[in-house]
Structure formats: structure tokens, C-alpha cells
Design a protein that fits this description.
alpha/beta, five-stranded parallel beta sheet, 11 helices, 13% strand, 373 residues
Length: 373
């Protein structure tokens, strides 16, 4: 019985065998609380207490509640009730199988100040987390090692936590873990595309925008100058790619394009809406986009002056591309008879319309999630 006990240093019960009920009610831990591979009789067990900073003021010391390969989850019932963590506290649950509410019970855990909450190779979907205060849900606190080193497994952990909280109808915290799931998938795609570091992300975005711009330019030329004869080679290229789509070179290209498109969507979604968690961020982008559009429409002469400063050959090519893109955009606005383009800005208007629609949608969705499921 360790009721009302204070552990000033590491409380290591690794490989311990308890023949009777182990009671840690209202216990304070100033160091690591390690329950690695303990064995308990098949009756109810409670582990209650506070994990707080050391009394000597050493805030850099590591203290944690650590459970790994805990045989009590198979032989008996383990309960974690009323445990609180300090600013550098850590909770580690790893390599534990067959967890369910009948043998593993968590209630009234306060993770709000914990430095790290690490879940590794565990099944969490059937667990319940009543009255658990998670604090800031982000990848720096929730399974950070898995997120950095094994994003595919981290993605599954976040998915399990999302589903577990969904079953409890704790939709607010479940939304946070859904955002982590998307971030882990994005990191998984970065590994697949061999993108590392901020410079790798920057090069990828520049390359993607350049390729997208080239494709839009080519498409605009084809639409503007489309003839029956020019359709034949395009149809042949598409038909050949469709037939040989499962061959290694073509399949690799298709997979790369699919991964790159998904990753770019995640980047845009994260930057503009924080993966659906923020309603304020898309609102800021909305104001910035409208302001930029108003500035562009009212300063066309100044922009033309800047273009004249570019070398003539490059300026001529840019003007041709912009003209073709405008012609391409006019085909869209031709379906709107009441819309006229007096300033020859069809392409800018089209981009503005698409981006504004996206930002308004993200703002509405984020606000809706704040007040209802």
C-alpha cells in the first residue's frame, strides 16, 4: 500500500510481482514512475496521484509515468485515476496489446501541462478516456518520436485516438487528433517523395507551381488554338498512357503525381485553415486576398511599368502566356452572360473567385465545427 506516499526520486517497479492489490492512491511522483512488465493478481488495481516538478527546482529533470509490456493488462485490471503531470512530465504507453475498458481504465488524467504523451505500438480504439485533459494537441507533445521516425505508425495512433474519442462523443478533442492524422500522412508523403527539411519543402513547392503553371499555359494554348488535327496526337498519348498505366515507369509517374498533389493539398489546408481547426486563419487569408485583388485592379498601370523593366524577350513570353491564360479563363466566364471583363483580367478574376470560395467554405466549416458536430 503506497497510499499518500511521496517518491522524491525514480519509482521503478519494473518486473515486480504484486500478490495483493497495489494501491497508489493520492501518490506524488517527483521522478519516473515505471511499471514496466509488472505482474498483478486478477483484481482491481488503482494508480492515483500527482506527477509534479521536483522540489529542488530542477526543471530539466525528466519524470514520467511509463508502462511497457505490462502483463497486468492481461492478468488483472489496471486503473490510472487522478494522475497529474508537471511541465516536464511524460506519459509513456508502449508495446501493450489487448487493451480494453475491462482491463485498462483511465479516469481524470491531467495531461494539460505534460511535456510528452507517447503511445507506441498499442491498440487504443476500444479504450475510454473520461475526464482526460489533453492540453495542446500537437505533434510536439503527442507521440513525437513516432511522428518523426515512423509517421505511418503515428498516423495510426492518431486515428485510433480520434475514433476512441468519437465513440465517447468528445468531438472537440477528436477533431484535434484528426488534424494530427493528416499531418502524419503529410509527413509520410514527404518521406515517399524524399522531401527533407524546410529547404526541401520550399524546392518542392516552387517546382510544383512551375509545373502547374507550365501545364496551365500549355492547356490555354491548346484551348485557344484547338483544331481537329491537334486533337489526334493528344488522344493517342492519352490512350497509350491508359493502356500501359500499370507498367513501372508510367505507374511511378502516376504515383508520384498523386502523392505530390495530395501533399500540396495538405500544405494549403494546413497554412490556410490549420487542418480545419481554425476559423480565424482562413478569415485573415480572406481579407488579405480581397485586399490584394483590389490593389491589383487599381494599380494595373504600375504593374505594366514593372513588366517593362523585365528583359524584352522574357516580358514578351510572359505577356503571351498571360494572354493565353486570359483567353482560357474567358471560356469559363462565357457561361455567365452578365459578367464582362473590361480590364482583360479574366484569369485573375477566376483565381480570385476560386480562392475566395475555398476560404469562405473553410471559415464556415471551422465555425460550424465549433458549435455542432
Amino acid at each position: 500500500n503506497f497510499n499518500n506516499t511521496t517518491f522524491h526520486k525514480k519509482a521503478d517497479f519494473s518486473n515486480s510481482q504484486f500478490t495483493k492489490e497495489a494501491n497508489f492512491s493520492n501518490t506524488t511522483f517527483h521522478g519516473i514512475f515505471n511499471l514496466n512488465s509488472i505482474s498483478l493478481p486478477p483484481s482491481s488495481r488503482r494508480f492515483e496521484g500527482n506527477i509534479t516538478p521536483p522540489s529542488d527546482g530542477d526543471q530539466n529533470r525528466r519524470w514520467a509515468l511509463e508502462i511497457e509490456e505490462n502483463r497486468s493488462t492481461r492478468e488483472g485490471r489496471l486503473e490510472l485515476v487522478g494522475v497529474k503531470f508537471g511541465e516536464n512530465g511524460e506519459f509513456i504507453l508502449s508495446n501493450v496489446s489487448k487493451l480494453n475498458p475491462s482491463n485498462f481504465y483511465i479516469y481524470d488524467l491531467d495531461f494539460s501541462k505534460a511535456k510528452r504523451i507517447e503511445f507506441q505500438r498499442v491498440y487504443l480504439e476500444d479504450l475510454k478516456f473520461p475526464n482526460v485533459r489533453w492540453g495542446n494537441i500537437n505533434t510536439n507533445r503527442i507521440s513525437p518520436e513516432f511522428y518523426r521516425n515512423s509517421p505511418a505508425e503515428a498516423r495510426d495512433i492518431y486515428r485510433q485516438l480520434k475514433l476512441a474519442l468519437d465513440k465517447q462523443e468528445n468531438y472537440i478533442d477528436a477533431r484535434g487528433f484528426y488534424a494530427l492524422e493528416l499531418q502524419a500522412h503529410g509527413r509520410e508523403l514527404e518521406r515517399e517523395l524524399r522531401i527533407t527539411g524546410w529547404w526541401g519543402v520550399s524546392l518542392f513547392v516552387i517546382f510544383y507551381i512551375a509545373i502547374l503553371g507550365a501545364l496551365l499555359g500549355a492547356l490555354s494554348v491548346l484551348i485557344v488554338y484547338l483544331t481537329p488535327i491537334s486533337v489526334v496526337p493528344l488522344f493517342l498519348i492519352f490512350f497509350i498512357a491508359l493502356i500501359f498505366r500499370d507498367r513501372k515507369p508510367i505507374r511511378s509517374i502516376i504515383d508520384w503525381v498523386g502523392a505530390a498533389n495530395t501533399l500540396m493539398v495538405y500544405y494549403i489546408y494546413g497554412i490556410t485553415a490549420d487542418f480545419g481547426l481554425s476559423w480565424f486563419r482562413p478569415l485573415v487569408w480572406l481579407v488579405a486576398t480581397v485586399s490584394t485583388y483590389i490593389w491589383l485592379t487599381s494599380n494595373r498601370q504600375a504593374i505594366k511599368g514593372w513588366v517593362k523593366g523585365i528583359p524584352a524577350a522574357l516580358a514578351s513570353n510572359l505577356q503571351k502566356i498571360y494572354h493565353n491564360l486570359n483567353e482560357f479563363a474567358k471560356t469559363f466566364f462565357s457561361f455567365l452572360p452578365n459578367v464582362s471583363d473590361k480590364q482583360d483580367m479574366s484569369f485573375i478574376n477566376l483565381l480570385f473567385l476560386v480562392f475566395i470560395s475555398y476560404l469562405v467554405y473553410q471559415t464556415i466549416i471551422a465555425l460550424r465545427r465549433r458549435v455542432r458536430r
